[in-house]
Design brief:
heterodimer; A: 363 residues; alpha+beta; six-stranded mixed β-sheet; six-stranded antiparallel beta barrel; B: 127 residues; OB fold (Dihydrolipoamide Acetyltransferase, E2P); six-stranded antiparallel β-sheet; 4 helices
Chain lengths: 363, 127
């Protein structure tokens, strides 16, 4: 299958983006370089094309009941114009996907899901619709989305709108924000650990928004930012990536996401029984953070050993651009997961020493 | 991409500069450009012997790790330890900043490598 182009493809090429095929989309892995883009987001602002993300609308009188049944978090706990992070699981507790739910109204919600999972998610949602009185609509192809991330995001975006952005609190959104003459939905969310906004509009208008933000942020040092730093930023900020820290084979509890799994939620949800059992019996493995003691960079998939015995694998690893040291996440045997414990990461067939640390690398 | 004259090149984008029975080995401009900002270099031990096409070093950017392969059979006689503290030197000047110096085991293997002219053509046509 040929990868798809987002509405911003030509802009990426013009900006010198190094285009790769990611999750079936042609997207820039970097423009100027991963490190300067990463630093721009930590210190000023970066602008990401996230038009590849999937958008699925659920509406109808049973919308809330359906989402309570479908997902792990308590969707009843949010108000209109509020957002919640949640997951949907298989009956065995493995993860179908993790995503944000935007509450439009009591009977209407928007799910923003991982690009690579959009079709799978949509099918899963249809397959589990049961008798709920709802309509499920995949509107991904109609929507363009960009994310402005970094401490200067509000200052930059405020130049382009009359809406008081300081009134949009974290994990909240405004459906009607006029940016440079284009009506957008703006949420105070992101995937970098920094303040910032995600901006949704029609795919035809997103180019205008992209260029307006880059222009408005020039003096503040905004940079277009690629997928490369999107991953290093989210990893440093302890955010999971589907397929790495959680997957169909790694439950949210193992992935350290218990906060988004409401085992005491009144309603039944898919996977609840399995997850409850796993929690009550105790985890046998979990995702931990680690830091290299000896020289070397851990990479996704590298094996982890203790005293010559394999105890797990690296789920994400980098030379952290912010901390300038080699750190990673690994899914390992619970008995070896204590902070301070020394482990070996197999790098090019050689054991290299590391130690378990908190996953909150940035503190 | 910059291609320096009078060096030998491999299809994996290593260069080799011969001095008598010895040679310096480094990464061609194309390789450093593809990797992006290099943040880590792993060096072999002096006196280690490698066969042609065997990985003797690894060079890593934030995003990716790449092995560096021996263009010919040989023994490591010197390593560029400057790269340990400042791996970015390979981005700044990939031809000035060599990775290792080797003693060439069999000089006839040089005939299998590309000249700078051949490598330029290879970059144009194959890459």
């Amino acid at each position: 299958m040929v990868a798809k182009k987002t509405p911003l493809y030509d802009e990426h090429v013009k900006l010198g983006g190094k285009i790769v095929d990611y999750a079936g989309w042609f997207l820039p892995v970097q423009y100027e370089g991963l490190i300067p883009e990463h630093e721009a987001v930590r210190n000023a602002a970066g602008l990401f094309d996230v038009s590849h993300m999937g958008e699925i609308v659920v509406k109808g009188e049973d919308a809330l009941a359906y989402l309570q049944y479908l997902t792990t978090n308590d969707i009843a706990s949010i108000e209109t114009d509020q957002i919640i992070y949640t997951m949907m699981c298989y009956p065995d507790g493995g993860v179908v996907d993790d995503f944000l739910v935007y509450k439009y109204a009591d009977d209407e919600y928007l799910l923003v899901v991982n690009a690579a999972n959009t079709d799978k998610d949509f099918k899963w949602m249809i397959d589990n619709k049961k008798d709920f009185n709802i309509i499920i609509e995949n509107i991904s192809d109609q929507i363009g989305e960009v994310a402005i991330q970094g401490p200067k995001s509000e200052k930059i975006l405020q130049k382009l709108t009359d809406t008081d952005l300081s009134k949009i609190k974290p994990f909240h959104f405004d459906r009607k924000v006029n940016i440079s003459g284009v009506e957008c939905m703006v949420s105070r969310t992101g995937y970098t650990g920094e303040d910032g906004f995600e901006i949704y509009t029609s795919k035809d208008d997103i180019v205008k928004i992209w260029n307006a933000i880059l222009e408005a942020g020039k003096d503040e040092g905004i940079k277009p930012a690629g997928l490369g730093c999107r991953d290093t930023l989210r990893f440093e900020a302890t955010m999971p990536l589907y397929g790495n820290e959680i997957s169909k084979d790694i439950t949210p509890l193992e992935g350290g996401l218990k906060f988004a799994v409401k085992l005491d939620k009144e309603e039944d949800f898919i996977g609840k029984e399995a997850l409850k059992k796993q929690w009550e019996e105790g985890l046998t493995r979990k995702v931990v953070g680690f830091e290299m003691i000896e020289r070397g960079i851990p990479r996704e998939g590298y094996e982890v050993y203790k005293d010559g015995k394999k105890i797990g694998h690296v789920t994400t690893g980098y030379m952290s651009p912010t901390l300038k040291k080699s750190i990673g996440n690994a899914l390992i045997d619970i008995n070896e997961a204590e902070i301070g414990n020394e482990i070996d990461i197999m790098i090019r067939k050689k054991p290299v020493k590391a130690k378990i640390v908190s996953r909150k690398f940035l503190k | 991409m910059k291609v320096l004259k009078d060096l030998y090149y491999t299809e994996d984008h290593e260069w080799l500069k011969v001095e008598g029975d010895e040679a310096y080995i480094g990464l061609a401009d194309y390789a450093q450009d593809q990797l992006g900002d290099i943040v880590y270099v792993e060096l072999p031990e002096i006196d280690d012997e490698y066969e042609k096409e065997e990985a003797f070093s690894a060079v890593e950017s934030v995003k990716a790790a790449a092995d560096v392969y021996m263009p010919v059979d040989g023994k490591i006689v010197e390593v560029n330890e400057e790269l340990l503290d400042d791996p970015g030197l390979l981005n700044q000047d990939p031809y000035e900043n060599w990775i290792v110096k080797i003693e060439i085991a069999d000089k006839s293997q040089l005939d299998d490598l590309m000249t700078s002219e051949e490598y330029e053509k290879f970059l144009d046509e194959e890459v």
